[in-house]
UniProtKB/TrEMBL annotation, chain A:
The lineage of its organism: Bacteria, Pseudomonadati, Pseudomonadota, Gammaproteobacteria, Oceanospirillales. This is Cytochrome c-type biogenesis protein. GO terms for biological process: cytochrome complex assembly. One of its GO terms (cellular component) is plasma membrane. Gene3D superfamilies: Cytochrome C biogenesis protein. One of its GO terms (molecular function) is metal ion binding.
UniProtKB/TrEMBL annotation, chain B:
This is DsbE family thiol:disulfide interchange protein. Its main location: membrane. InterPro entries: Periplasmic_diS_OxRdtase_DsbE (IPR004799), Redoxin (IPR013740), Thioredoxin-like_sf (IPR036249), Thioredoxin_CS (IPR017937), Thioredoxin_domain (IPR013766), Thioredoxin_ResA/DsbE_sf (IPR050553). It is a single-pass membrane protein. It is found in: Cell inner membrane. Transmembrane segments: none annotated. One of its GO terms (biological process) is cytochrome complex assembly. GO terms for molecular function: disulfide oxidoreductase activity. Keywords: Cytochrome c-type biogenesis, Disulfide bond, Redox-active center. The keyword Disulfide bond applies. Pfam families: Redoxin. PROSITE patterns: THIOREDOXIN_1, THIOREDOXIN_2. Belongs to the thioredoxin family. DsbE subfamily.
Automatic annotation (TrEMBL), chain C:
Signal peptide: none annotated. This is Heme lyase CcmF/NrfE family subunit. The keyword Transmembrane applies. One of its GO terms (biological process) is cytochrome complex assembly. GO terms for molecular function: heme binding; heme transmembrane transporter activity; lyase activity. It is found in: Cell inner membrane. The chain crosses the membrane at residues 6-28, 40-63, 96-114, 121-142, 178-198, 210-230, 250-266, 275-294, 314-332, 353-375, 387-409, 421-442, 448-469, 490-512, 615-635. It is a multi-pass membrane protein. It holds the Pfam family CcmF_C. Residues 316-637 form the Cytochrome c-type biogenesis protein CcmF C-terminal domain. It comes from Marinomonas arctica. Keywords: Cell inner membrane, Cell membrane, Cytochrome c-type biogenesis, Lyase, Membrane, Transmembrane, Transmembrane helix. InterPro entries: CcmF_C, Cyt_c_assembly, Cyt_c_biogenesis, Cyt_c_biogenesis_CcmF.
């Protein structure tokens, strides 16, 4: 099932930029490095099939990584960086969708289901106990 | 009552089926721009031809196109003749030479002709990022009041131009 | 000439599938023994015909018959011979033929065993399988025939197989994965047959169990192989991306796991019957949904087939017919099913019910996360992405809860377990687990979540061994004879549960204790990553059968001793003009060294990614243990009982 379309080709063709970013980034603090790594993993490359900024080799991903790096080093907060990206590329770039009424079911649906499931569990066990009582 | 419970899975499945049906055939690559309905972001860019500094206040006041291109981009070669035809028919196009080299761009326009009213250089891609550009070519339709009304990713051609033209009001 | 025979043989097999879908059912209605008994030979003939066309297509690939469109698109004369064979399932049409072949294989397996079933049940099961075959054979024939020809303009050479697929992974992963996916059709067919005949009892569950266990084992192995393949092939060291296509295989696995457990209760105690049937339908539906998501182009994924809405339409139609039809049948017939057995709140039934509820919630969570962007878009709310961060924060806590209960379940007894027995064992295990996990976390300075997860893992190990020890030490005989006496089924369960724990440990440690560096290196440079020193020795140009490559040589040192020499490559495939990264890795029990070449930065310098991944092998080791557990359970002696007179 894992037929992989030429993602590299696709991303590469779209933006076969000549400029190659310096991958080795030096951060002012260790915290900044950690923040950078988690941000580029949670942001989606807007032009690729389904890859985050960290994994993608496409030109736009390289640019956006650089942008994240710059903003972190300028002392911007994570929220400011996320807002910056959303203002330009839309909510699509967030692998962690923002909490809103439209995503309420996404975020809380599983826990609501869990609640319903546990209630059903209690219900089934209780009715069984009653039946057992009658049988005795 | 108990009988109805057994219909729940079927009902859920049918709703899901409708959603899947609606999504069939949609272009999953299509990405609506966040900028639609907003003013063109502020910029200060240098023009390719005369080294003048332009800002967003120098943009036209009638509907026009902003076209991102670059000499490194194969699809831009394909698109170029059509842009020439558009310019000939009186469409105003602002070109953004995106992440490119000045001499290559000058050479390109000299050889292939220049469909653009102004060509601004975005060497670092900063303006491109502000416009949410992910590659080239990309074309934006801007209305008379300076608000972005449409974004098209990929080559503009005779096939999709009628759609794009519809936004130029 | 041969491809036409292949096509013709597929058409014939469609006719036999149609007969299989109807004749035995008519026989069942009319009580006609002859029609009922036709099911077995019809199945064999249908399967043989599918096999014939599969062999013909393989031959077309091996003989470089580029007059066949599909061969010309997916193969090339320069391609190494083993990839020529596996290129058969490198694209949509061929992989669908593989799907049909696997399906007919399962049908034949059921047909061989049909005599172990009552005379009026086996043929109905085969009939339902026949209907599924009709669906997939017509999908293959009407929308995606692999035998279409390019005549008279036969291309001189083929377009080549996608370089990403020119790998050992392609040879093994799809067939095994399909064995799992498609295998759940058997459970589905049994469920529908039970709804049709009304024959739904404990022996029904005993017939389905080994089939489900076998399919589950294959799916487990298939997912494990896929994860391992993506890890070394995609070049960025990830092993699971929560990509829609991966989720498409994960959902049937979760539902199938629930089915496996619920079948145990139905077999032993005769309860949860209608729930078990629903789960069988649900599992199969998720397999079909997976096929839809992967082949219809409604989702973007790192690994999807070329999108085509007509194919999507066809699978959607199949979904509506099979899933809609069976759910309708379920809605009408299941209300009649009632179970009279009762159980207590501490009985094993209750634990397994809890297991089923949690697994169902987990399945629905993955389903929700996978489909939410689609629903969002369909409602015109815009485009969103649901990725790893979402699943990590929603799926993981519920999954941990499941593993906590997983360990307790086996200790319980059917009907009723004395509460103080469980309580005593569990409290000891809890203390041991929390303290030992705490010790690890303290020594290595991990965080709270690691502590929690490791405690769950240790808890699982403690309780599994306690359970085993309790079983072998009771009674008069010695430990070893008693250990031998325990059924395979039990060891299968034990192995699968321990496998789950091993995978959990792997996941936790690889995510918190791995180091990665993206560096700019030239030959002669050295880099330090996680205590290892990597020396970039040299770069050379090499030539492969159908590519040229820049091949680097890295020597890894630990404490000034050479531990590994690694050769990552950047390959350029000449036919497709495509560049591929071939990562190099040194696998180890507690850590992997992983080097992958990025872009060439200037004349000598390269962007190089170096990872040291701890315990990553454990993820797949656990998967293998689970698979072995599933097979053991499928091969339990109980299921290989006498054939009918």
């Amino acid at each position: 099932m894992r037929c992989i379309k030429g993602i590299f080709l696709l991303c590469g063709m779209w933006l076969s930029l000549s400029a190659v970013a310096q991958e080795e980034m030096t951060f002012r603090t260790e915290l900044n490095k950690t923040r950078y790594q988690s941000l580029v993993e949670e942001l989606r490359c807007p032009k690729c099939q389904n890859q985050n900024l960290a994994d993608s080799g496409s030109g736009i991903a390289v640019d956006l990584r650089e942008q994240v790096y710059q903003m972190i080093e300028q002392g911007k907060t994570d929220q400011e960086i996320v807002d910056y990206m959303v203002a330009r590329y839309g909510e699509f770039v967030l692998y962690r969708p923002q909490h809103s009424t439209a995503t309420f079911l996404l975020w809380y649906g599983p826990f609501i289901l869990l609640g319903i499931g546990l209630l059903a569990f209690i219900f089934v066990v209780m009715t069984n106990r009653k039946r057992q009582g009658r049988a005795l | 009552m108990r009988k109805l419970l057994f219909f729940i899975p079927l009902a859920v499945f049918l709703i899901l089926g409708v959603v899947l049906y609606l999504q069939l055939g949609k272009d999953t690559q299509y990405m609506p721009s966040v900028l639609v309905g907003k003013k063109v972001p502020a910029f200060t860019l240098v023009s390719l031809q005369d080294d003048q500094v332009y800002t967003h206040q120098d943009l036209p006041t009638a509907p026009y196109l902003i076209n991102f291109w670059g000499t490194w981009c194969p699809a831009c070669h394909v698109e170029h003749p059509f842009l020439m035809a558009l310019a000939d028919s009186g469409v105003t196009i602002i070109g953004i030479d995106y992440k490119d080299k000045k001499d290559l761009a000058e050479q390109w326009l000299e050889q292939k002709g220049n469909p653009y009213q102004i060509v601004l250089m975005d060497e670092m891609g900063r303006f491109g990022m502000d416009m949410g550009v992910t590659g080239a070519p990309e074309t934006f339709v801007v209305d008379g009041s300076g608000v972005v009304v449409y974004r098209h990713q990929g080559v503009v051609n005779a096939e999709n131009w009628p759609d794009i033209k519809g936004y130029m009001k | 000439m041969f491809p036409e025979i292949g096509q013709f043989s597929l058409i014939l097999s469609l006719f036999f599938a149609l007969s299989l879908a109807f004749l035995p059912l008519i026989g069942y209605r009319k009580g006609n023994r002859f029609l009922l008994q036709s099911a077995q030979p019809l199945t064999f003939i249908m399967s043989a015909l599918v096999l014939v066309s599969f062999v013909i297509l393989s031959a077309s690939f091996l003989m470089d018959d580029f007059s066949v469109l599909y061969v010309s698109q997916n193969s090339n004369s320069q391609l190494p011979v083993w990839y020529k064979f596996s290129a058969l399932w490198g694209g949509h049409e061929g992989s669908l033929l593989l799907w049909v072949l696997v399906l007919s294989g399962w049908c034949s397996a059921v047909a061989i065993k049909v005599r172990t079933l009552p005379e009026d049940v086996g043929p109905v099961v085969l009939s339902v399988l026949g209907m599924i075959c009709v669906g997939f054979l017509s999908f293959l024939l009407f929308t995606s025939s692999p035998f279409a020809r390019l005549l008279p303009d036969v291309p001189a050479d083929g377009g080549d197989l996608n370089p990403l697929l020119q790998d050992f992974g392609l040879i093994v992963h799809p067939p095994v994965l399909y064995m799992g996916y498609v295998g759940f059709s058997v459970a589905f067919a049994f469920a529908v047959a039970a709804l049709i005949t009304g024959n739904l009892n404990a022996s029904w569950a005993r017939w389905v169990r080994p089939w489900t266990a076998a399919a589950w084992a294959f799916l487990t192995l298939g997912i494990t192989l896929g994860s391992w393949w993506a890890y070394y092939e995609l070049g960025w060291g990830g092993w699971w991306f929560w990509d829609p296509v991966e989720n498409a295989s994960f959902m049937p696995w979760l539902a199938g796991t629930a089915l496996l457990h619920s079948l145990a209760v139905t077999e032993k105690r005769g309860v949860f019957k209608s729930w078990t049937v629903l789960l069988a339908i649900f599992t199969f539906s998720l397999s079909l949904l997976g096929a839809f998501l992967v082949r219809s182009g409604v989702l973007t994924s790192v690994h999807s087939f070329a999108a085509d809405p007509t194919r999507g339409m066809f699978i959607l139609a199949l979904l509506v017919v099979f899933v809609g039809g069976s759910l309708l049948l379920y809605a009408i017939r299941a209300a009649e099913v009632r179970s009279s057995v009762s159980f207590g709140a501490t009985g094993r039934e209750a634990w397994l019910l809890l297991n089923n509820i949690l697994l169902t919630v987990l399945t629905l969570t993955v389903l929700l996360g996978t489909l939410y962007p689609l629903i969002f878009d369909a409602l015109g709310l815009g485009k969103i992405s649901v990725g790893a961060p979402y699943f990590n924060s929603v799926f993981t806590p519920i999954a941990l809860l499941l593993i906590v209960f997983m360990a307790v379940g086996p200790l319980s007894k059917w009907h009723h377990t004395p509460f103080n027995v469980i309580f005593k064992v569990c409290s000891v295990a809890a203390v041991v687990a929390v303290l030992s996990a705490g010790l690890v976390v303290y020594c290595y300075e991990f965080g709270f979540t690691v502590w929690l997860s490791l405690a769950v893992a240790f808890w699982g190990v403690c309780l599994s061994f306690t359970d085993w020890f309790g079983k072998v030490s009771a009674g008069a005989k010695g430990i070893i004879p008693r250990a031998r006496q325990l059924p395979r089924n039990y060891y299968g369960m034990l192995l699968a549960h321990l496998g789950m724990v091993v995978t959990l440990v792997g996941i936790v440690l690889v995510s918190v204790n791995s180091q990665e560096s993206m560096l700019r290196l030239s030959p002669g440079d050295r880099a330090r990553v996680a205590g290892y020193e990597f020396h970039f020795d040299q770069m050379e140009q090499v030539k492969g059968p159908n590519y040229v490559a820049s091949k680097g040589q890295f020597t890894a040192y630990y404490a000034n001793k050479v531990v590994a020499v690694l050769h990552p490559e950047k390959r350029f495939f000449t036919t497709r003009q495509q560049v591929m990264t071939e990562a190099a890795l040194d696998a180890g029990f507690t850590r992997d060294l992983y080097v992958s070449l990025g872009e060439r930065l200037d004349d000598s310098a390269w962007g190089v990614r170096i990872y040291v991944k701890s315990f990553v092998r454990w993820i797949w080791l656990g998967g293998l243990m689970m698979m072995a557990g599933g097979l053991l359970a499928a091969l339990d002696k109980r299921y290989r009982k006498r054939t009918r007179g």
